[in-house]
Specification:
Shape: globular
Structural class: alpha/beta
Helix content: 25-40%
Distance between the termini: 58 Å
Number of helices: 11
CATH topology of the largest domain: Rossmann fold
Strand content: 25-35%
Strand order of the largest sheet: 7-22-23-21-20-17-18-19
Number of strands: 23
Largest sheet: 8 strands, mixed
CATH superfamily of the largest domain: Vaccinia Virus protein VP39
Low-confidence stretches: none
CATH architecture of the largest domain: 3-Layer(aba) Sandwich
Length: 468
């Protein structure tokens, strides 16, 4: 039996509640609200309802907040790529700053000596250097479109675009995306039209059938453009036809690859992309440094803001030329290489072996001879024998994934007791959790958030920790 929806009518959204949600306070209960902004007066239905808190979605807006602005994308509200287009950018920055401070104080239980203002993005559209779009045999239909379906027009058209949030098998057919330079629209729309004209099949995620699966686009600040088309099976004739057409229509492509993926999931990290045209990689630039990026390389997706983020790291590290720097979760070595000019030695550690190979190539590309990179778990690598060979760190830079650092690594850092830790995070809640664990020996000297993803609730934050 379906549970009856609980309705809450005519309530005012009073504040921001982190992770893109706002909040309503009602009779001692806090309701976390999606798709609303402070100042809205709304009618809600509750999706979760506990004793002291609830979660809700607006089904009617009685009064719109004065803080609202008109979203610029026709797909806003359905697509999950941008959730804050209805908020002025200065308000987005205000709420992100607030969330970073509150998490580190509340979860991290830290007394922060200095809080620096959030570093905003100069570009708030076309800021991403990488996008991945999905081909689907069935386009997502809006409620209005569903209501208009009749036996005569009940035709499911294919789509190429982005997934509907929290719905794995629904893809929105994207005509124009503002997250990346317009070249993404050219590539996606040319692929769609040519595939439909030629009867190429789009992937059915439930049946696991169909030829076209994904297209991954990377457009660098250097002007180099890499496209990787992911296919469900090999068909040389169709593939050559499609690739030749795309190169003709988008001559700015410098590298075109294809990847055959017969698996049930979309990950390509255990697959081998094949170069169809070009050198098989692109060169990106951060500040004075160049980076070779292949189709499976991890790299910051907002190049200009990554420079600002790395400048914060460089400032916090305050290197004088005499320090040994350990760059943990180093990926392709970008942070270590960026700060290497003022370091005596860089030691990068990363669990993904392919990323370490990229890091070594990037060091050679930039003529950096005082950086060494090691594949493996830092818990196992950083032992007494390793320190005897490479030296103990004066500065540790750590940039873990959203889940934060493994608790064993936190204990390892307490054991190493480097004078300085610069902690870079894309999740201030897990950063704050780790800071609380490190507080046994470290105090938080300063923090500075940075916004790499305008119109989303994602925040980067750099914290400077000093040994007590």
């Amino acid at each position: 039996m379906r549970r009856k929806k609980v309705l809450v009518e005519n309530v005012k959204v009073s504040g921001y509640a982190a992770e893109g949600r706002s909040l309503v306070k009602l009779d001692g209960k806090v309701i976390f609200v999606e798709n609303a902004v402070p100042g809205d007066v709304v009618d809600l239905y509750l999706t979760k309802n506990k004793e002291t808190w609830a979660e809700g979605k607006p089904f009617n807006f009685r009064v719109y907040s004065k803080e609202r602005v008109q979203p610029f994308c026709k797909h806003f509200g359905i697509c999950g790529g941008c959730k804050w287009q209805m908020l002025p950018y200065e308000k987005q920055l205000e709420y992100k700053q607030q969330e970073a401070i509150e998490n580190i104080k509340r979860i991290g239980k830290a007394n922060i000596e200095e809080i620096l203002p959030i570093t905003g993005s100069d570009a708030i559209i076309h800021y991403r250097n990488k996008m991945e779009f999905t081909f689907s045999s069935k386009r997502f239909l809006t409620a209005e479109e569903m209501n208009a379906v009749t036996p005569e027009n009940n035709i499911q058209h294919p789509a190429v675009g982005l997934h509907v949030p929290k719905i794995f098998d629904k893809v929105i057919d994207i005509e124009e995306c503002f997250l990346m330079d317009d070249v993404n629209n050219q590539i996606r729309n040319h692929l769609r039209s040519f595939a439909l004209e030629n009867g190429f099949t789009f992937y059915d995620i439930k049946q696991h059938t169909g030829w076209l699966r994904n297209v991954i686009i990377r457009f660098c600040s250097t002007g180099e453009l890499m496209v990787n088309i992911v296919l469900g099976y090999e068909d040389e004739e169709q593939r050559n036809k499609l690739c030749d057409y795309l190169l003709q229509q988008v001559p700015s492509i410098t590298t075109l690859l294809y990847t055959i993926n017969t698996k049930w999931n979309d990950s390509i990290f255990d697959l081998s992309p094949q170069t169809y045209y070009g050198k098989g990689f692109v060169i990106e630039q951060l500040g004075a440094y160049k980076f070779k990026i292949g189709p499976k390389s991890f790299f910051q997706t907002n190049t200009k803001q990554a420079e600002k983020l790395y400048n914060i790291v460089n400032d916090f590290a305050a290197l004088t030329g005499n320090e040994t720097v350990y760059d943990l979760y180093c990926g392709t070595g970008s942070i270590g290489i960026y700060v290497s000019k003022n370091a005596k030695k860089i030691i990068g550690v990363e669990t993904i072996a392919e990323a370490i190979e990229d890091a070594k190539e990037n060091a050679l590309l930039n003529n950096i001879t005082h950086a060494d990179f090691f594949a493996g778990d830092v818990i196992n690598i950083c032992n007494d024998e390793f320190f005897a060979m490479h030296g103990k760190p004066d500065v540790v830079i750590t940039d873990p994934p959203r889940a934060g650092m493994h608790e064993k690594l936190v204990h390892k850092l307490l054991q190493i007791a480097a004078p300085t830790i610069v902690y870079v995070s894309c999740n201030t809640a897990t950063q704050a959790r780790d800071i609380a664990l490190l507080s046994e020996k470290y105090s938080v000297e300063k923090i500075q958030p940075a916004d790499l993803f305008p119109h989303t609730h994602h925040i980067e934050c750099v914290a400077l920790l000093k040994l007590k």
